[in-house]
Design brief:
mainly alpha; flat
Length: 181
């Protein structure tokens, strides 16, 4: 749609909220309560940092640094496993969108610095964001499920941790099959 609307499309969410308010579907108090300024500023900050990483060349430096840590000739499995695990750990503590915005430029920089196809790493980051359900902070859905069920994260971890490990491994192997490094 950007080809037709230009930068006006970025105002679509605000226009949608205004339509909901003026049609009476949503009152102003509920709207203000639902949109916390902390979340908006966090997303804005993460997007700016991700854009700066790509534009300044810092992403390329980070990519080279990560490759140096992994060794001279890292296997595709180890690189993909690293990014899959990092994504799950990060999205447990910060938002899924924030994790994607930070890790995708880094993963693309690592892949391009090594001469690899970046699609597998980006696919892993996009998919592994949804595996962090071991704690209520992993996603909004996990928070609702933990609260509604009255679950104790420590007790439920014996079920969610094996799931997260299997999900990380299966995502990594699948991405390695379809988009080898």
């Amino acid at each position: 749609m950007n080809q037709y609307t230009g930068n006006w499309l970025y105002l679509a969410p605000a226009a949608g909220i205004l339509v909901l308010i003026y049609t009476g579907c949503l009152d102003v108090k509920t709207c203000v309560t639902a949109m916390t300024s902390d979340m908006i500023w966090m997303l804005a900050g993460v997007l700016v940092v991700a854009d700066a990483l790509g534009a300044s060349g810092a992403g390329e430096l980070i990519g080279q640094f990560i490759l140096n840590i992994l060794g001279d000739n890292p296997s595709g499995l180890s690189v993909m496993l690293l990014f899959s695990t990092a994504t799950v750990l990060m999205t447990t503590f910060i938002s899924n969108m924030g994790t994607q915005s930070v890790l995708i430029p880094i993963a693309a920089s690592v892949a391009l610095a090594a001469g690899w196809d970046p699609r597998g790493l980006i696919l892993i980051i996009g998919t592994a964001n949804y595996f962090a359900l071991g704690f209520p902070s992993g996603s909004g859905e996990a928070a609702v499920a933990f609260a509604a069920g009255g679950y104790n994260p420590g007790k439920v971890l014996k079920f969610t941790l094996p799931y997260m490990i299997l999900a990380i491994l299966s995502c990594t192997v699948s991405a390695l099959i379809f988009y080898p490094l």
